[in-house]
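Sequence in, structure out. Go.
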Amino acid sequence: MIKKMVAVCFAISVVLFGNIAVNAENNNEAYLGNMAYRPIEWNTRSQLGRKYCQLRGGEYASDAGIYAETLKMTGHVVGDLNGDGIPDAIVVLVHSFGGSGSVLQMAAVIGYPGRRLEHVASINLGKGVHVIYVDIGRGGKIEVKLTTDDNLISCRTYHFRGNRITKG
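Output:
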């Protein structure tokens, strides 16, 4: 479902932002899947939250043996988060830490004139949740529809302002 949503949203974004050459070609899965992201620490033993992790083909894995951590991109949506007319993206990441489960995170990636895209903010969506869809609206409004391992569905609203994602 998320792959279909990403493809549709990307196609819509190309139409909406087709006249903007700056960074528009970089807002695709291949580019976003090879960027550096700084995951949020959610486990006291986590090492990834203290550094940027360079994804390769949408994945990063530490080599810490039993405490190995992974960061994996599971999807993205393109839109204008900061209202500057340049395409930005929301990237959904799964941060796993050994045997203690995984946390879904949402990362804001901003396009700047004449520069590469940059990961500027993240927020935890929770453990045991899966994204059904993400929508970027006007004024930095981000709507997320999630399902849990128990098949409960929830809709959440987030806001992107000042290079921060906040809930509510």
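Check: The first strand starts at residue 36 and ends at 37. Residues 2-126 form one domain.
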